[in-house]
Amino acid sequence: MKKRLKPQIIYMLIFMFLPLKTAAAEVYRMTVRAYDNCKVCTGKTPKHKAYGITKSGKVASHGTVAVDPKMIPLGTKLKIEGYENRIFRAEDIGKAVKGRRIEIWMESHNKALRFGKKKLRVFVMK
Fold first, then answer.
1. Cα gap 17→89, rounded to integer Å
2. Number of independent structural domains in the chain
3. Does some domain include residue 1?
4. Would residue 2 count as lying in a domain?
5. Which of 54, 94, 112, 123 could form a disulfide with 79 if both were Cys (CB 3.0 to 4.6 A apart)?
6. What residues make up the domain containing 99?
7. Opening angle at CA 77, ends 29 and 105, nearest 5
8. What is the mean pLDDT of each run of 10 residues along the chain (126 residues)?
């Protein structure tokens, strides 16, 4: 009896090579965490003039990622394992974001906490 691949495995195999077909990409295994605009995550209150504003000057929204600009330049497009249908953009930096660490922006602190800390493949589009 032939063994069949599970749909999840096939989907992951397709995703692994999809970014390489659409554009040249570097793949890194990175620690991925989440953050939001709250004072706990950013140190800024809603009264602060830069509240919700990223290092690149844009308003943080879905698809915003904080990176180490020495490793991934601001403005770079990213794909993240588990979020195959979304293209992220490196628009922010953070004190704890160094080397192979990135942080995905979420709309609430509870969602950021639930996301936790994960090791995922990150495709850095060239």
1. 20
2. 1
3. no
4. no
5. 123
6. 7-125
7. 75
8. 53 50 77 93 90 92 95 94 92 92 95 95 91
